[in-house]
Amino acid sequence: MKKVGFIGWRGMVGSVLMDRMRAEHDFDLIEPAFFSTSQVGGKGPQIGRETAPVANARDLKALAANDILLSCQGSDYTTAIHPKLRAAGWHGYWIDAARTLRMNDDAVIVLDPVNLPVIKGALAKGVKNYIGGNCTVSCMLMGLHGLFQRDLVEWMTCSTYQAASGGGAQHMRELLTQFGLINAEVRDLLADPASAILEIDRKVHGKQTDGTLPMENFGGVPLAGNLIPWIDKDMGNGVSLEEWKGGAETNKILCRGASFGVPATPIDSLCVRIGAMRCHSQALTIKLRKNVPLDELAGIIASANEWVRVVPNERERSMRELTPAAVTGRMHIPVGRLRKLAMGGEYLSAFTVGDQLLWGAAEPLRRMLRILLEGGISQRSPGRMAGRKTVVGA
Questions:
Q1: pLDDT at 384
Q2: Strands 68-71 and 2-7, bridge-based pairing
Q3: Catalytic residue from among 82, 145, 171, 280
């Protein structure tokens, strides 16, 4: 039985990972150890049996005793610890949610329903670093897997609508606090049916701009009742890091680009933070390589993997099924608003939603662990969920 060490299991992504592993009985297959940077000596998560006290996540010797390490601790931790472990001679498998190693030549971005052959090829070559991808990239590829699989995408633009959860638990808390304070500012006016809506609007705007809302996590601007048209650092050319990832990571997952000897697929994004709690949505404009009938495209998308769901381009179903509220805590990836654009038959629009904490973060890591434990899997297993409800929490 393989020894597997978990770091960052108490955080948001780590908590969802623990929930999914319990639901899929993954702990039955391993000898787990739990590490922490701040709770050394405490109890680990409930997994159905006793575990050793939580160990020090900076203890290289204790970490190296594991065959596999799975980290949800973040980029700073990976940057500090991973090179030291390798330098000390640890040759185990490193699975990570952080972006630190994603684009390294000795690492594979894991999304096995899309790139299982790539993962298997890397394992055969002795690659030891397997990294979860950017949340919007993973959710988008799960939804549009079929189009890329058939090499139908010539180029694509993407406008994202990313939830507070993409920033972390403190961002979610801050958003709710902002909503609460704004509501308190106008509660009496809302209770009075005769109050003027323009007065309510004036007071809401005043609260948003008077500097009293907590805004530490969103760069000094409020998200409640607002949006933020920039995510992550400036790359120096008018592109945010989050937008750069859309093209760079997608092409690496698909093995496209100069280093693979295949032309990269141009993908440009405009990434926006919105006041949703979790689940990232994306509006896509796709230039196809050829004019494929819409019903055929819908079939290609729907049949690519067991989690994608094509939603008919109808008002009522779009409003019910293509929203963060409808997808939160669920494994399926709905794709809708499919229609040909006025620009021509090769131009397709699409809208998709995915739970940022499931396929966008925890699930690819969990499935990569199962691949290692089982020595290679088929696309439809392990952990087959087929879109059923999973209760997950942060």
A1: 36
A2: parallel
A3: 280
| pLDDT computed for residue 305 by the predictor | 97
344 Ramachandran zone, left/alpha/beta (phi>0; psi -120 to 50): left
332 is catalytic: no
Encoded tokens for 80 = 């500090």
User: Would the CA dihedral through 19, 372, 138, 162 be positive or negative?
Assistant: positive
CB-based contact 387:45 (threshold 8 Å): no
Q: If you search the block for the tokens 């004036």, which residue do you land on?
A: 202
CA distance 300 to 92: 38
| CB-based burial, 209-244: b 16+ in 10 Å, e otherwise | eeeebebebbeeebbbeeebeebbeeeeeebbebbb
Written as one letter, the residue type at 20 is: R
Burial string for 122-145 (b: 16+ CB within 10 Å, else e) reads bbeeebbbbbbbbbbbbbbbbbbb
Candidates 72, 135, 158, 271; catalytic one: 135
The list of the chain residues with pLDDT below 70 reads 376-394
Report yes or no: 349 and 7 within 8 Å, Cβ to Cβ. Answer: no
CA neighbor of 350 nearest in space, from 271, 283, 275, 290 = 283
Task: Give the separation between CA 81 and CA 78, rounded to whole angstroms.
Answer: 5
Which pLDDT does position 375 carry in this prediction?
A: 82
Q: Is 158 a catalytic residue?
A: no
Structure tokens at 257: 């680009």
Closest C-alpha among 229, 220, 332, 215 to residue 271: 229
Question: What CA–CA distances, in Å, run from 391 to 142, 229, 327?
Answer: 21, 31, 12
